[in-house]
Amino acid sequence: MDARLRITALLTASTLGLALTACGEDGSAEDPTPAGSTTSPSASPPTDATDATDEPTAEPTNPAPSEGDAETTVPAYFVGDTPQGARLYREFRRVSGDPYVAAAALVTGGDVLDPDYRSLWPDGSFADVRQEGDAIVAEVADDGWATRGGLSANGARLAAQQLVYTLQGVAQERLPVRVVDGEGTPVPLFGLEGDLAQASPLEVLALVSISGPEEGATVSGTFTAGGVASSFEANVPWQVRDSGGKVVLDGYATAEGWMDKLYPWASEVDVSDLAPGTYTFIARTDDPSGGEGGGPMEDSKTITVE
């Protein structure tokens, strides 16, 4: 079977295989740190930032929990729509106080920067989130999240994975997430019993995402766009579109790999010839099926060119 038939089969399997498992697998590698002339409303992704699917770096993104008003950069995972169904996308955010509590609050509160993202979590908040031994413990304030409520079965699992990926990103370890009541007794989350483990990244994460530039970033000259992807033959096409939707720049990045997990990609983007104004940067997966699998996955960020 040639490569294009293999990837078409893979895309079809991904479309059908959105039942989110409770067992974790090794996933994406480190993101390249976006560089160049960029500023944004929140902190840029930290140097050597890792996904929760990686081993910790020598200088972890998030050291021990902060005290007082100290700030920490945390990854928060939100839901976005793709042709293959809802998937998780990540934002790096600066938070004050304990990073576990703050990161969980971003997820449960649906506090997104990118308007294309959302949270599946109903209203509410955790009483506490902390690391205890070989697990991350999330203490619920009441039993409001014990059942699925209005969530579908897949929605409940994806909401749980929002929490798992976020808290594991804070810990920089693939620790199980244990949901407990005020007395420390394990309780169900959206009908899911037992410790929550990371589901396969290829099943729950978008197959392309942009870590930089961030939503709302201001750029000038040449900047480095980057993120992670699992795209046909490691090809990651990108575009810059003006406010009317016209493509004014395009190119592609070559990721460090493809198919078995998400790999880093990066590309230099020269906006020096563009008029100042608002644009959209878009990165996509390559689509060898010609749309038969529903079309490519993509991520987009609104940027301002100075």
Molecular structure report:
InterPro entries: Gmad2_Ig-like_dom. This is Bacterial spore germination immunoglobulin-like domain-containing protein. With about 300 residues, the chain is α+β, with helices and mostly antiparallel strands. The chain has 2 domains: about 20-35 and about 45-200, no CATH class; about 210-305, Immunoglobulins (Immunoglobulin-like). Helix content is about 15%, strand content about 35%. It has helices at about 5-15, 100-110, 155-170, 200-205, and strands spanning about 35-40, 70-80, 85-95, 125-130, 135-140, 175-180, 210, 215-230, 235-240, 245-255, 265-270, 275-285, 300-305. A hairpin with a 2-residue loop joins strand 2 and strand 3. Helix 2 runs antiparallel to helix 3 (about 155-170). It is globular and about 60 Å long. The N and C termini lie far apart (about 50 Å).
Give the low-pLDDT segments: 1-66
Which structural category fits the helices and strands?
A: alpha+beta
**Count of beta strands:** 13
Largest sheet: 8 strands, mixed
Distance linking N and C termini? 49 Å
Q: Summarize model confidence as the mean pLDDT.
A: 83
Q: What's the gyration radius in Å?
A: 19 Å
Number of helices: 4
- Oligomer description: single chain
Strand content: 25-35%
Query: How many domains, as an integer?
Result: 2
Helix content: 10-25%
* Basic shape: globular
Order of helix and strand elements from N to C terminus: HEEEHEEHEHEEEEEEE
Keywords: Signal
Organism: Nocardioides marmotae
Protein name: Bacterial spore germination immunoglobulin-like domain-containing protein
Pfam families: Gmad2
